[in-house]
Amino acid sequence: MISFIGRSIVQKIITLFFVSIVSFLIIHLAPGEPSQVDPMNPKFTREMVERFREEFHLDKPLYRQYLYFYRDLFSGKTISWKDNQPAFKKIWERFLNSLPLFIVGTILTWTISFPVGIRSAIFRGGIYDRSATFFSYLLISIPGFFFAYILIMFVVNQFHVPVIGMETFGIGETSGFNRIMDRIWHLLLPSLLGATAGIAVLSRFVRSQMLEVEGQDYVRTAKAKGLAPDQVHYKHALRNALLPFVTMFGLILPGLIGGSVIIESIFAWPGMGRMAYEAILARDYPIILTLNFVSAVLVLIGTFISDLLYMVVDPRIRL
Amino acid sequence: MADNEALLSVEELKVYFRSEDEVARAVDGVSFKVGREETVCLVGESGCGKTVTALSVMGLVPIPPGEIAGGRILFNDQNLLVFNDNEMQAIRGNQIAMVFQEPLTSLNPVFTIGDQIGEAIQVHQTAPPTEVIQRSEQLLKDVGIADPAQRLKDYPHQLSGGQRQRVMIAMALACDPKLIIADEPTTALDVTVQAQILRLLERIQKERSMSVLYITHDLGVVSKVADRICVMYAGIIAEQGKKDAVLKTPKHPYTQALLASLPNRDKRGQRLYSIPGTVPNPAYKPRGCPFHPRCQYAIQTCCEQFPEMCHYGDAHMARCPVIFDDGREN
Fold first, then answer.
1. What pTM value is reported for the model?
2. Does the interface ipTM go beyond 0.85?
């Protein structure tokens, strides 16, 4: 156990090292230059461009730039090239904005898809299963942005509540209750939309996983013991069907960063996804690379957690 | 065996499996009886309907696609086929228990042996936890597992195949059933373990005066355990009778062919006999006797008429119109 943790931390650090090299190279291979050193912009004189290049070490060879960047990153001195704000502070602010969206979306996804998928599997071929199948394929096939606009129009026309952004402008003036309701309305649509595709896909996956387990010999054994159907399904089958989802559960962590660019753009939600997108457009290398590094760390933490969880839920696995 | 002693009596059982465009008649009019404290072997090739017959007795045929198309299953003179789900649950594992073919996959990998045996007790009986543990230990001891207290805490993957099959048997015994259905319990095990499990089943049956319905394709096993034998072919019973009668004076050409294809010392160095052709697809069974395309004695009637059961005394009967004696042609 201890040796597993030690081994896996060493492995993950090595992985992280390679991730840092590859992501650094990919970003620098991409065409274009940071917006502040744009030589095409007539406002920039040759001297200014040279000064910026020097300041951002863009005139140095790549490996030097790499070293400078990761030295800054680990000493926490990375600053955005766009507005000279410290990168971690910027990311942290956006992270706090994304967090409620992520949490509500994830809770919706996981709490809805499991009951739906499990019931579909138990009553396979029935009217419930077929309608669930129909709706999940419907949700998978409708593009998120299209669905978003329909929902926005519906909610705004029907309930007369503003849903764009994180809160209504000037709502701070009113009472606490109104502010909370306002926040909830603003949170509801984007997190619901973020969850729909997830629900559709995950419930299908739960269904097929459950179906597979229902066909196993030990489920027949459980029935042969004379157990009631509920115990057969929810104790013997479900416990086994859940195993692969432990892996998925560890991997939802990185979804914190990249999972919601489209939704955040549609709803003008100042979250991390949008910041990453904007940073890429502006060639704001420090922000892109820091986000990249953070999400790599999140992936590795996620896999580590799912390895540990696996050991807890599956007695066959001893690390 | 007199009729009134029958513990289980299957009468004209028909189990069909429907798919979109065909009906597979997996079990097509099977009748046999299992007396008290008797071991009856259902013998036949893969796909002949042995397991489906057993599953119907347990009420475990998946419906749909399965369908009980007719017949009765009398257990203690009650027709199990008219029982509802709750009534069947009370029978399953309690009065009739089943041991399955694959001990490796028949135990739930995420629960301990103790959980699974204890559960089998608690489904049908209320007992305080300490008593459940005691009884589970006793059960494991009965099936010959060393250090039962420790094994109860183990997970299935920590046991060998033979041990797992013993656990399955212990689980089946949990509520002292009157009938145990053993569906090829030794097929997945190696030969030495096979012999141990057979002896174990035999001993337990005597100790607890149970009946056993033993399903197998292994005639070697049959000759060791059976009191009576039912030979199944393509969803029907081709021949049934006392062990010695069926094995020594087989009447049905299929039984004769099966016995002829057994290896034995006298045939050393010769090619083994094999029955020509293959088992018919249960959805497209031949008209008349289902065995006629592979039967070397088939006559015109065999192709046209479904054969009647012919009786040879002492409950020995065979579904073949051509009367044979010791394999000699009539």
1. 0.79
2. no
